[in-house]
UniProtKB/TrEMBL annotation, chain A:
Keywords from the named record: Transferase
Name of the molecule in the record: CoA transferase subunit B
Keyword Transferase: yes
Family: Belongs to the 3-oxoacid CoA-transferase subunit B family.
UniProtKB/TrEMBL annotation, chain B:
GO molecular function per UniProt: transferase activity
Organism: Sphingomonas daechungensis
Gene3D superfamilies, A to Z: Glutaconate Coenzyme A-transferase (3.40.1080.10)
InterPro entries associated with the record: 3-oxoacid_CoA-transf_A (IPR012792), CoA_trans_fam_I (IPR004165), CoA_transf_BS (IPR004163), NagB/RpiA_transferase-like (IPR037171)
Protein name: CoA transferase subunit A
SUPFAM superfamilies: NagB/RpiA/CoA transferase-like
Lineage of source species: Bacteria, Pseudomonadati, Pseudomonadota, Alphaproteobacteria, Sphingomonadales
Entry similarity comment: Belongs to the 3-oxoacid CoA-transferase subunit A family.
Pfam families: CoA_trans (PF01144)
Keyword set, alphabetical order: Transferase
Length: 218, 235
């Protein structure tokens, strides 16, 4: 339900829809927990995209109907899911062989911080919060294209796209694209700087500049 | 050779000792060897090092062994969804070797396959790389990770035949397969034990050579961490 105040910038769903524009027919894709999971609802019609779940499944189906809930069938976020006619199951070592071996085309992840050099931090805040890296370090090391979807600023207002990450890294020089509620940044390779390529509705390049400390090309 | 034991306690007889390393299967609460974990808890064995992706939730799965302080060190990738795990770690009461999920799976697989170490790109330039050898292959950096050879593996399967051939079900396979191979001895619990010849040899996920002891763990009351459903469209 969009109100006047919300018409500026992208909602969580709209950020996921923007990320979905990066999908291509035939892609094998791994989606992280949170906003990235919403990308699954935005796969363009007529396109075949196979979702991988790192706990050992290719071909994630939609959430099950109440009477089809199966405790042996969950995604990496531990949510109950369903299978498709094309699904397959495998063990965790085989799953990460796919990931580490460069067989996954695209991953969409959340982040606490991304640096202008493409470093990403999303697994711990020393002394305060620790969840662990789960499969994120393997994903950023092995997947062909890494997209980060995150709020442009933290709840405190602090920028999250910054010159250098302050938190322990998940990966160094790995991010290809950043989609925030305000804008999209992209770089063609890992030696190039990020470039501002798109603004969310009602957002100006000047506002993005004010709310970002990372250096990027306009 | 008889591999089937009448209880988890009996199946673990003579295998447990203080300070040992145990590899456990499961992802979250999916496919966890819950009968064997209960028996490990009841044995009172302590100072355990446990290699497992997660540690259950507060009072389920390996979370039970954390609560009774039988665990000295966890080798895990993820502690979310388990407040006691996070609390013990932040308070310095529990040692945790944070290991990326794929690296953990490969460390278990490698350990079981007689491979003492391997190079991986995962974790390069992060805390995970600290103290580890870095080697460049074809212009890219990799870090050396060690295989894990556990004293004991505990895993959960779906069906086994009487010889110990195992089949897993859906995403409950997860870490059970690599964990099973990592142990000097593996004890498995399953939902059903069928006569030899009932399982398709082409469909065996874990060959019997890995399963030294077996128990029927049923009936199971499988827990779900996050039940998510969709509604049927009105007809």
């Amino acid at each position: 339900m969009a109100t006047a105040a919300e018409t500026k910038g992208w909602t969580r769903d709209q950020m996921a829809a923007r990320a979905a524009k990066e999908l291509r027919d035939g892609y094998y894709v791994n989606l992280g927990i949170g906003i990235p999971t919403l990308v699954a609802n935005n796969i363009p019609g007529g396109m075949t995209v196979t979702l991988q779940s790192e706990n050992g499944m290719l071909g994630i189906g939609p959430f099950p109907y109440e009477d089809q809930v199966d405790p042996d069938l969950i995604n990496a976020g531990k949510q109950t899911i369903s299978e498709l006619p094309s699904s397959s199951y495998f063990d965790s070592a085989a799953s990460f062989a796919m990931i580490r071996g460069g067989h996954i085309d695209l991953t969409v992840l959340g982040a606490m911080e991304v640096s202008e050099k493409g470093d990403i931090a999303n697994w711990m805040i020393p002394g305060k919060m620790i969840k662990g890296m789960g499969g994120a370090m393997d994903l950023v090391a092995g997947v062909k294209k890494i997209i980060v979807v995150m709020e442009h600023n933290a709840k405190s207002g602090d920028p999250k796209f910054i010159p250098e990450c302050t938190l322990p890294l998940t990966g160094k020089n790995v991010v290809d694209m950043i989609i925030t509620d305000l804008a999209v940044f992209h770089r063609p390779d890992h030696d190039s700087p990020f470039k501002l390529i798109e603004l969310a509705p009602g957002v100006t390049a000047e506002e993005v500049r004010e709310k970002t400390t990372a250096n990027y090309v306009e | 050779m008889q591999k089937i034991y009448s209880s988890a306690e009996e199946a673990l007889q003579g295998l447990l000792f203080d300070g040992m390393t145990i590899a456990a299967g499961g992802f979250g609460l999916c496919g966890i060897p819950e009968r064997l974990i209960d028996a490990i808890q009841a044995s009172g064995v302590k100072d355990l090092t446990i290699a497992s992706n997660n540690a259950g939730i507060d009072n389920e799965g390996l979370g039970k062994l954390l609560r009774t302080r039988q665990v000295k060190k966890m080798i895990s990738s993820y502690v979310g969804e388990n407040k006691e795990f996070e609390r013990q770690f932040l308070a310095g009461e529990l040692e945790v070797e944070f290991t990326p999920q794929g690296t953990l799976a490969e460390r278990l697989r490698a350990g079981g396959a007689g491979i003492p170490g391997f190079y991986t790109k995962t974790g390069v330039g992060t805390q995970v790389a600290e103290g580890k050898e870095v080697k460049s292959f074809d212009g890219e950096d990799y870090i050396l990770e060690r295989g894990i050879r556990a004293d004991l593996s505990v895993v959960k399967g779906w069906k086994a035949d009487e010889s110990g051939n195992l089949v897993f079900r859906k995403t409950a396979r997860n870490f059970n397969q690599p964990a099973a191979t990592s142990g000097k001895i593996c004890v498995a619990e399953v939902e059903e034990i069928v006569p030899v010849g009932s399982l398709d040899p082409d469909g065996i996920h874990l060959p019997s050579i890995y399963v030294k002891r077996l128990i029927l763990g049923a009936p199971y009351d499988k827990k779900i961490e996050f039940k998510t459903v969709r509604q049927r469209e009105a007809a």
